[in-house]
Amino acid sequence: MSENSGFPRITDEGYEKMPTFRAEQLGTVAKRVLEGAGASEQEASVVARELQGANFVGHDSHGVMR
Q1: Quick check: helix, strand or coil at residue 66?
Q2: pLDDT in tens, 32-50
């Protein structure tokens, strides 16, 4: 589902590459996570779309990772 980008992240073991997702995957993953946390399908869709949109315009700190 994901692939590694060139952006490293730090773990207890050292540096790892940050996984990246294609646009449609990002929305699906976000929606599933939100539903798993108890959001309704409608709520999850709206929030996932907004988080995905933040990523698309370069505001990753307010995107899906949040």
Answers
A1: coil
A2: 999 999 999 999 999 999 9
pTM of the model: 0.67
The burial class, CB within 10 Å (0-12 / 13-18 / 19+), for 54 is middle
Confirm whether 35 is domain-assigned.
Answer: yes
Q: How far apart are CA 64 and CA 66, in angstroms?
A: 5
Backbone angles phi, psi at 4, to 5 degrees: -90, 140
Tokens found for residue 37:
């946390």
| Amino acid in position 12 | D
Domain assignment present for 4? no
